[in-house]
């Protein structure tokens, strides 16, 4: 300790002579009594302003304040390269109020210093932990936290002013899901080398804008030790991963998206965390963050540990973490991972491997209460963002307000639609007539929640094959089928999400170690598919009938369902001003030249998109000119005579006579 203090003394200028007497760690606190109360009540949503490392000036001396929660600790110190990782030179002080918080100010310690907490538990066990609230970490496989600041001059005031309208449930949401490390790579054969946030921004932002997506969703960018977890096994909940650069460089990426008019959604993982030595697991030698009962505290699917939602301090940690990204990084929405596993005690657990709740049910009442508190807090603090639940069960009211008994999310992934749709399109068109209910069933429950239609990364990994190879037939038919499926997706009620690579028909499963198959765009089939997705985005975002009432049952009407033999389906999306978008899907490779459908409207129609257009590598069976209704012969007032393309969609917009 003497050696360290001597080094510090030498670095103090003569005009700071009065401050030489500062101890290696000064007793200092950023916590008020109110902070402690809220922390222990589980309702503190700004803990990131208190915990972790914070550069500040104390008694005229610059340094760093540290605070960590370790309620089962007998001794806590800060170790790092600044003190030779000495366990005893910089000991933190326990708060007098029995909150379990250890804190103190270390003079002269500035930015970009490596550190950890040395913790001796009450049992005598010694641990070296990263800072749960660190804003920066070493690049894996190294595991130290790094002192840093989050100062950044934002330039997105125009976006922030208008994003309430951009993120409204009455606005289009077409989301491009991205894994930053594998969208593009400097060397596709070297998974250890990444583009920086700045380099990715220069390529990704203009691409997303050109493709017409309204939002980008980033798979977890929080710090994680193992690339193969895709970011879903976090150790640094409060830090953008250092793989691609600094927190400020990530802020600049968000800023650039906002300048381009694109919202940024983050995958957020409040459901579980890994057992890495430097992480949250047994943080102070006890089950600090996780349930002690492994029937609730360990998740067999991911070999990881479940947050203890019954512990108020843990709830404050998670609540603050969600608000942290919205506050400090201007994030526009959170897609909350694995909600089904959070709210069901028996999720992926066999009989006897879980314990019912106090009422004998399988609901995790503490997790449900936490999610309600989470959404209530987010929408009160940031009413212009959205939360989106990945929830795969029929649990009531996931996207309904808390005051109505719901969980309070803005949207919910429509997993049933995804499963049924992919299963239907895998079938040979010859047999689709027997399975038409698969493609129509989703409307039975489409308006029970605010649904987002996801074709996510989960559908193109682990032997499931890429989307293009899920489609039957020869090369031409596979692309026609995929364009047809996208037509159905972009005109079905609900918001949209497409995983990277799906927009141009990547021919290999997603692999986090390499990049997408961009070389495929030299082929007209892949170019055509990419152009079609661009056109589908333009249609969806340009027609209020497709988005303004996307969660309203009155916006949808079946028009023609009786022709099972030809697997032809026609439906309408209706706007608030009487406009009609008519969608005709031909699920077989047999074209129809003069196909009559009965309609109830005395309106003219014009084709606005056809998946069989030549520019999309289709066969060119399109409808030209204005289509006028004729006297009906099939039980409806009027008929409309259509050309239906093979394995194609013809989409029309009404025009007043």
TrEMBL record:
Which residue stretches, if any, does this entry annotate as coiled coil? none
Record EC number:
2.4.1.18
- Tell me the enzyme class: transferase
Say if the entry is tagged with keyword Ribosomal protein.
no
So where's the catalytic machinery, residue-wise?
337 (nucleophile), 390 (proton donor)
List the molecular function annotations (GO) for this entry: 1,4-alpha-glucan branching enzyme activity; cation binding; hydrolase activity, hydrolyzing O-glycosyl compounds
A GO biological process of this protein is: glycogen biosynthetic process
- Please provide the record's keywords in A-Z order: Carbohydrate metabolism, Glycogen biosynthesis, Glycogen metabolism, Glycosyltransferase, Transferase
GO CC annotation, single: cytosol
Domain Glycosyl hydrolase family 13 catalytic, by residue range, is: 177-540
Is Phosphoprotein one of the keywords UniProt gives this record?
no
According to UniProt, the reaction catalysed is: Transfers a segment of a (1->4)-alpha-D-glucan chain to a primary hydroxy group in a similar glucan chain
Q: Which InterPro entries match?
A: A-amylase/branching_C, Branching_enzy, GH, GH13_cat_dom, GlgB, GlgB_N_E_set_prok, Glyco_hydro_13_N, Glyco_hydro_b
Q: Which SUPFAM superfamilies match?
A: (Trans)glycosidases, E set domains, Glycosyl hydrolase domain
Please give the pathway this protein is involved in.
Answer: Glycan biosynthesis; glycogen biosynthesis
Q: What does this protein do?
A: Catalyzes the formation of the alpha-1,6-glucosidic linkages in glycogen by scission of a 1,4-alpha-linked oligosaccharide from growing alpha-1,4-glucan chains and the subsequent attachment of the oligosaccharide to the alpha-1,6 position.
Family the UniProt entry places it in: Belongs to the glycosyl hydrolase 13 family. GlgB subfamily.
The entry describes its oligomerization and partners as: Monomer.
Give the protein's recorded name: 1,4-alpha-glucan branching enzyme GlgB
Q: Which organism is it from?
A: Chitinophaga lutea
Record gene name: glgB
């Amino acid at each position: 300790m003497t050696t360290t203090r001597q080094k510090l003394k030498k670095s103090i200028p003569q005009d700071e002579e009065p401050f030489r007497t500062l101890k290696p760690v000064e007793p200092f606190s950023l916590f008020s009594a109110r902070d402690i109360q809220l922390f222990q009540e589980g309702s503190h949503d700004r803990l990131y302003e208190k915990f972790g490392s914070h550069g500040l000036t104390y008694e005229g001396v610059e340094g760093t304040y540290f605070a960590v929660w370790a309620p089962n600790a007998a001794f806590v110190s800060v170790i790092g390269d600044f003190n030779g990782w000495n366990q005893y030179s910089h000991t933190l002080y326990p708060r007098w109020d029995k909150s379990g918080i250890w804190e103190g100010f270390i003079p002269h310690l500035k930015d970009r210093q490596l550190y950890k907490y040395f913790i001796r538990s009450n049992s005598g066990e010694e641990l070296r932990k990263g800072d749960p609230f660190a804003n920066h970490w070493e690049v894996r496989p190294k595991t130290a936290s790094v002192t840093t600041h989050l100062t950044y001059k934002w330039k997105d005031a125009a976006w922030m002013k208008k994003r309430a309208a951009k993120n409204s449930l009455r606005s289009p949401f077409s989301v491009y899901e991205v894994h930053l490390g594998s969208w593009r790579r400097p060397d596709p054969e070297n998974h250890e080398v990444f583009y920086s946030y700045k380099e990715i921004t220069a390529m990704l932002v203009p691409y997303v804008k050109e493709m017409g997506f309204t939002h980008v969703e980033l798979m977890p960018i929080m710090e994680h030790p193992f690339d193969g977890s895709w970011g879903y096994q976090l150790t640094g909940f409060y830090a953008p991963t250092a793989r691609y650069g600094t927190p400020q460089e990530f802020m600049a990426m968000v800023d650039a998206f906002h300048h381009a008019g694109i919202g940024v959604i983050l995958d957020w993982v409040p459901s579980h965390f890994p057992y890495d030595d430097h992480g949250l697991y047994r943080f102070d030698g006890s089950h600090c963050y996780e349930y002690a009962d492994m029937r609730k505290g360990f998740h067999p699917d991911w070999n990881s540990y479940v947050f203890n939602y019954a512990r108020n301090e843990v709830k404050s940690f998670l609540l603050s973490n969600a608000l942290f990204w919205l506050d400090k990084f201007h994030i526009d929405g959170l897609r909350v991972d694995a909600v089904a596993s959070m709210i069901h005690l028996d999720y992926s657990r066999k009989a006897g491997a879980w314990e019912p709740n106090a009422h004998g049910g399988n609901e995790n009442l503490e997790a449900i209460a936490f999610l309600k508190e989470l959404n209530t807090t987010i929408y009160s603090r940031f009413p212009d963002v959205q939360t989106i639940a990945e929830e795969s069960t029929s649990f009531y009211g996931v996207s309904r307000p808390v005051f109505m008994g719901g969980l309070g999310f803005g949207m919910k992934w429509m997993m049933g639609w995804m499963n049924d749709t992919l299963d239907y399109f895998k079938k040979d068109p010859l047999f689709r007539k027997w399975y038409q209910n698969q493609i129509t069933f989703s409307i039975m429950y489409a308006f029970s929640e605010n649904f987002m239609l996801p074709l996510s990364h989960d559908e193109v990994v682990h032997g499931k094959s890429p989307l293009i190879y899920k489609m039957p037939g020869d090369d031409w038919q596979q692309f026609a089928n995929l364009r047809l499926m996208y037509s159905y997706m972009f005109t079905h009620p609900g918001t949209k999400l497409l995983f990277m690579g799906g927009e141009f028909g990547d021919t290999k499963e997603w692999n986090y170690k390499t990049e997408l198959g961009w070389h495929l765009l030299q082929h007209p089939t892949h170019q055509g598919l990419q152009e079609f997705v661009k056109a589908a985005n333009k249609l969806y975002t340009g027609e209020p009938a497709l988005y303004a009432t996307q969660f309203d049952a009155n916006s949808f009407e079946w028009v023609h369902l009786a022709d099972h033999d030809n697997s032809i389906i026609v439906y309408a999306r209706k706007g608030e001003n009487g406009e009609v978008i008519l969608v005709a899907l031909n699920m077989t490779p047999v074209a129809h030249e003069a196909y009559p459908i009965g309609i109830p409207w005395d309106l003219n129609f014009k084709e606005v998109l056809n998946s069989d257009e030549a520019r999309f590598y289709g066969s060119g069976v399109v409808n030209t000119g204005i289509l006028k209704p004729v006297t009906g012969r099939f039980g409806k007032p009027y008929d409309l005579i259509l050309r239906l393309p093979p394995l194609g969609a013809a989409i029309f917009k009404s025009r007043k006579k």
